[in-house]
Amino acid sequence: MKQQLEAIRASAVAAMENAADADALEALRVQYLGKKGELTAVLKQMGKLSAEERPVMGQLANEVRAKLEAAIEARAGELAGKAMAARLLAETVDVTIPGEAHALGKQHPMYQVLDEIKDIFIGMGFEVIEDREVELADYNFTKLNVEEGHPAREWSDTFYFTEDSSILLRTQTSPMQIHAMETRSLPIRMIAPGRVYRKDEVDATHSPMFHQIEGMAIDKGITMADLKGTLNEVVKSLYGEDTVTRFRPHHFPFTEPSCEMDIQCYKCHGAGCPTCKGEGWIELLGAGMIHPKVLEGCGIDSSVYSGWAFGFGLERLALGQYKISDLRLIFENDVRFLEQF
Ligand code: DAH
Known about the structure:
The chain contains 12 helices and 9 strands. It is α+β, with helices and mostly antiparallel strands. It has a 7-stranded mixed sheet, sandwiched between helices. A two-stranded antiparallel ribbon has the order 2-3. The radius of gyration is 44 Å and the shape is rod-shaped. It starts with a helix and ends with a helix. Residues 172, 174, 214, 252, 255, 286-288, 309-311 line the site of 3,4-dihydroxyphenylalanine.
């Protein structure tokens, strides 16, 4: 039995020291130390030994078992170390390799200008509202004091949906004034950007679809001075502190008095150049004090409340801001053009 045990120790330890991986080592453990293992088989014969031999063999058997267990543990440690080394090698990250460049999209230049304008007005406590483009003629014209028969209502200028000229694609954002008055409680401070439609042929300065921004403030005691102060602040934020503006009398059916606001040409500072077509001034927007008829039509007491409104074309502003010469570039969405902003 002693020889058997010695033989097991020698062959098992040698095999364990050379086990190729954790699985092979586990197989060896089962082969020698398992329930049906070789060492176990020898121990089962202990009963046949004499009383003197039994403790001696018992001790030897325990030593062999301890030896095998130690050999397994040692080899397991070596294998784990090797496996970790191999994994570290395989997973090496070269932090010096340049990262992958992802192409980032950009916001359309016109919407960059729009966001800038929204920010300015939000900063002054205005609400931004966006709404329908299909409109009732009632809201696009009548409630804005544009009577039946007014030239602005002509079929030649407006996309109507119905023979009776009652439903149309809005030709201006001004109907948003009416919607705001009908749905909001006073005081109101809002801007309403959005698409508008007119039957215009496409050329360098015209498009059947373009964008406007409407603005409106209604409260007790609002005057023309508030309109001028607000708009001056806006253009200074957009074009710089030294921007010079002027207000010229004009006519719009829904404001009284009405005006147009110009800014002094940012290129020639008034001297006259191609940008301002020699005028020294660039027309920016239409505005005025909301006509009492319009206020009353929306149930607002014009003896208590007053308000101002303005409207302007967004494309024209963006063209000026980015010195773009042709409106069509704004809509063609040629990536080579858009990438420049
Ligand atoms: N809706 C006008 C247009 O399309 C622009 C305008 C002028 C809007 C005066 C206003 C305003 O709110 O007060 O030409």
